[in-house]
Write a structure and sequence with these properties.
- The complex is a heterodimer.
- By secondary structure, chain A is an alpha/beta fold.
- Chain A has 15 helices and 15 strands.
- A nine-stranded mixed β-sheet of chain A has the order 3-4-5-2-1-6-12-8-13, sandwiched between helices. Chain A has a three-stranded mixed β-sheet with strand order 7-14-9. In chain A, strands 11-10-15 form a three-stranded mixed β-sheet, with no helix packed on it.
- In chain A, helix 1 crosses helix 7, helix 10 packs across helix 15 and helix 12 packs across helix 15.
- The longest helix of chain A has about 45 residues.
- Chain B is mainly alpha-helical.
- In chain B, about 70% of the residues lie in helices and about 0% in strands.
- In chain B, helix 4 packs antiparallel against helix 5, helix 6 runs antiparallel to helix 7 and helix 7 runs parallel beside helix 9.
- The longest helix of chain B has about 55 residues.
- Classes of the chains: A alpha/beta, B mainly alpha.
- Chains A and B meet through helix 1, helix 2, helix 6, helix 13 and helix 14 of A and helix 2, helix 7, helix 9, helix 11 and helix 18 of B.
Chain lengths: ~475, ~375
């Protein structure tokens, strides 16, 4: 092929990328409108949905909080205390010690005066063998059940063990290192009680806890992170939750309920076979299989999101942790499309096959590949002089301004509605981060996504998605870790 | 500067039309970003101004109106309504047509009323009507925006003003579920006979509504329990029948037991489950043989409900049936519920339990010990 033919190919691809970007931005625009509808309805609804009603009613459904713990000795006690102090009248806390090699279990036994008990345990869904069960004779900790099991190598296996032991019809899947709002259960149960369809799962936005002030496992001051990766991830989360998830919520097309915070119908999870321990994206995998199951039994269903931030999690603070996180997420996405490729564009799966999967395939899975190839073409076109500098800059500015536009729209929208940050300076900090995100952060996301696809393609071995914890800023100095 | 400005038209003409579109769109986005950034501070300032206005009006209400009212109540809690009228006429000078002003005034009235519910409920309602605030609420009920309808209903409910039936009844089965729900709560809370209001509901209740109506009815002073006979039957909307069963259990109203027994033959699985639950909670022990007879042909959920009901009845008459289910069932949950039902009757069946405990081995022993353990009674 001549240089000119190559030039034509590159140029055509270049235009394809810009049309693709236009399509993404159009979808973002649509999601922004849908998100506005969803959040407005939620706000109006919240005026008549009084929390005390659930707190006082004997008809309030019970909830099991399930959290897996693997080598969490630094934060486990404060975080379990915080889980035991939720605003909700009927719940239990099931902590699954997934074969920790540090003093996680010993610390739990000491702090909560736990005693080993006989427990009739049934493996409704598969998981590694469960060894022991602990409960406390101290009435203050009567809601707590600790399960000690053989390490399953994944959070999914630990959650499955917890689901088997859970008593109530609904369960909250969270991480012990997450800081939950006290009203988490009251907010997340609402869609289950409210919707005309059968709700199978609910979720809520997550934010970074890195720079926030935490007291005895409770969030006392929300601040935007300072560290490089965490602040960009905060912007990314706000965009994904406030625009993306809330927009999809309006048309009942949520793709995923985050592994950090999600409430599920326990029976549907059991009927679906539970979490897949060998999955890199066990949260999305779970939702996909739950949707497929509901489709197979012919029952109308919904996956819902509430707009209030209810969970804060420690974001990656180092390059290595960030890389591992992104590679794992990319592998999870690739794995889902390898496993459930038959769902894509399949009308049998209705919304799942015709909206959720195609969107994820075109704008999530393929996006890094298209973008990386686009950047290469762009550089080649400029180098070979096949595209004028002026035109090249215009196209670049177009992509950049819209990327910043939607990020800032999401940040301001989130702040205007919920006012999580008490100081507007924090909001300004996030807005400034949005300007730098396309240059500094996004290229790394692309790179690690491609890396993840490659790892999944060559089937590299899987490890527990563990992050080195630094702990949170504590109000009282006694527990200050940094 | 001039040379830059002069070069702009030239630059513009050098782009092909396609690129010009991108330039314009990018420009729109850039302007959008600037507008949003400016808004960040404008909205913040506006919020502060609005907040200050709200605080001023609220403090006026508290200091000039309600504190005077409260000061005119004597030690016995008596006050003179004729004197009070002077105090709130001053409020008419405010622009009550403005929704925000009105909201502040009404919220303050509700807060004051809720602080002294015994004393000022009627007075605040009179004040609300005297200021013609109810007219705005009624006007909102006829608007298309459901949020306004809901807020109007909420306001009227808090004030305690019952409107004419023709205003409210059409809203009970409104197409918007929030309006429907609020109207139902409104009528149930303010009506003299909340149970009778259930007859106007034809659309199913959501679980949330069930919880809300249950609370409102259970807090009501005048509940005519005998009306429940009309709702506990196969012909009533199943969610209303379910709510009635829950209320019967709450009030321990055993007079409806014949109606409850009739419901056992319903085809609605959720209603059947609630019926069996009610039988257990109300300890209608005459239904025991009926439940045992039903057991084999039922779905797993209903079977578990039957086992729980037999446990709640605590009669000691069905121990052999429960033991048979416990020993012969291959389903873990059936075993566990049967075991729990047996253990619930430990006051009357201590010997039976001890005997069973001696004979059990393996999984059965583990389940039984689990249910006997004081720390796992709810597990």
């Amino acid at each position: 092929m001549t240089l000119q033919t190559w030039g034509h190919i590159f140029q055509s691809y270049q235009w394809f990328v810009f049309y693709y970007c236009c399509l993404i931005y159009s979808i973002y625009g649509m999601l922004a409108i849908l998100s506005y509808v969803s959040i407005s309805v939620n706000k109006s609804k919240n005026r008549i949905r009084e929390n005390f009603l659930l707190m006082q009613s004997p008809l309030t459904p019970g909830i099991s909080i399930i959290a897996g713990a693997y080598n969490e000795e630094i934060t486990i006690i404060d975080n379990v205390r915080s889980l035991l102090n939720m605003n909700y009248p009927r719940y239990e806390v099931v902590i699954v010690n997934d074969g920790s090699t540090d003093r996680t279990l010993e610390k739990l036994i000491e702090a909560f005066q736990l005693e080993e008990i006989q427990f009739a345990y049934h493996y409704f869904i598969g998981c590694k063998p469960v060894n022991r069960f602990f409960k406390s004779p101290n009435g203050a900790y009567s809601k707590l059940l600790v399960i000690d099991k053989v390490n399953g190598g994944s959070k999914a296996d630990a959650i499955n063990a917890g689901v088997n032991a859970a008593v109530y019809d609904y369960f909250l899947n969270t991480d012990v290192d997450c800081i939950l709002s006290k009203d988490t259960l009251l907010k997340l149960i609402q869609p289950f009680l409210d919707d005309s369809k059968k709700v199978i799962a609910t979720g809520a936005p997550l934010k970074m806890a890195n720079n926030c002030v935490v007291e005895s496992g409770e969030m006392v001051q929300v601040r935007a992170p300072d560290s490089f990766f965490a602040i960009f991830q905060e912007v990314e989360y706000i965009r994904a939750f406030s625009l993306g998830k809330m927009g999809w919520n309006t048309i009942n097309a949520i793709q995923n309920v985050s592994g950090g915070l999600g409430m599920f119908d326990r029976q549907v999870v059991i009927d679906t076979g539970g979490y897949q321990p060998d999955s890199f994206g066990e949260d999305m995998d779970m939702i996909v299989r739950m949707c497929m199951y509901m489709q197979s039994i012919g029952e109308e269903y919904a996956v819902r999101y509430v707009p209030q931030t209810l969970c804060w999690t420690e974001g990656p603070d180092s390059f290595k942790v960030f890389k591992n996180q992104r590679v794992r997420w990319a592998r999870g996405l690739y794995q889902i499309f390898s496993l459930y490729h038959y769902v894509l564009f399949n009308p049998k799966y209705k919304r799942l096959g015709l909206i959720i999967f195609p969107h994820n395939f075109i704008f999530e899975l393929l996006a890094p590949v298209i973008e990386v190839l686009g950047i290469i073409c762009y550089i080649l076109l400029i180098a070979t002089g096949l595209i004028g500098w002026k035109n090249a800059i215009v196209l670049l500015v177009f992509v950049y301004t819209y990327s910043v536009f939607f990020s800032i729209l999401a940040i301001l929208w989130d702040q205007l509605v919920f006012r999580h940050y008490k100081r507007w300076l924090e909001v300004l900090k996030l807005c400034i981060a949005a300007f730098f995100e396309p240059f500094l952060y996004h290229p790394l996301v692309l790179l690690f996504s491609m890396w993840g696809y490659l790892h999944q393609f060559i089937k590299k071995e899987k490890k527990w998605g563990k992050m080195d914890r630094l702990g949170f800023k504590q109000k009282t100095e006694t527990y200050a870790i940094r | 500067m001039n040379s830059v400005l002069c070069s702009v038209p030239g630059l513009w003409h050098s782009f092909n039309p396609f690129i010009r579109v991108f330039v314009l769109i990018s420009l729109a986005a850039a302007i959008g970003i600037m507008v949003m950034m400016i808004n960040l501070y404008v909205l913040k300032s506006l919020r502060n101004i609005r907040h200050r206005r709200r605080v001023l009006l609220s403090s006026f209400m508290r200091d000039k109106v309600f504190s005077k009212i409260a000061s005119r109540v004597d030690a016995e809690g008596n006050f003179h309504p004729a004197l009070l009228s002077m105090d709130y006429r001053g409020l008419k000078k405010f622009n009550l047509k403005d929704r925000k002003t009105r909201n502040v005034i009404v919220n303050e009235m509700i807060a004051f009323k809720d602080s002294f519910p015994e004393l000022f409920t009627d007075m605040i309602r009179d004040m609300y009507v005297a200021l013609d605030l109810h007219l705005y609420a009624v006007a909102d009920l006829h608007r298309k925006k459901w949020q306004l309808q809901v807020e109007a209903l909420l306001e009227l409910q808090h004030i305690g003003l019952l409107l004419d039936e023709k205003e409210i009844f059409p809203l009970l089965n409104h197409t918007n579920k929030y309006v429907r729900e609020m109207a139902r709560c409104y009528i149930v809370k303010l009506s003299d006979n909340p149970i009778s209001c259930l007859s106007y509901i034809t659309e199913p209740l959501s679980k949330w509504e069930e919880i809300e109506l249950f609370r409102l009815i259970s807090l009501h002073e005048h509940v005519d329990l005998h009306l429940m006979h009309d709702y506990i039957n196969k012909h009533t909307e199943p969610t209303i029948a379910k709510l009635s069963l829950k209320l019967a259990v709450y009030y321990r109203f055993k007079e409806v037991f014949t109606d409850i027994l009739d419901l056992i033959h319903t085809d609605n699985a959720e209603l059947l489950s609630e019926t069996i639950h009610a039988i257990g909670k109300l300890q209608i022990d005459t239904a025991e043989p009926m439940l045992v007879g039903l057991y084999p042909a039922q779905s797993k959920d209903i079977k578990l409900q039957i086992l729980d009901a037999l446990g709640s009845m605590d009669s000691g008459r069905q121990l052999s049936f429960l033991a048979e289910v416990f020993l012969s069932s291959s389903d873990f949950e059936e075993k566990k519920h049967a075991s729990q039902a047996i253990v619930k009757q430990k006051q009357t069946a201590a010997l039976f339990i001890n005997g069973l405990l001696r004979e059990l081995t393996g999984e059965n022993l583990q389940i039984f010990r689990h249910t006997l353990h004081p720390l796992t009674t709810n597990s």
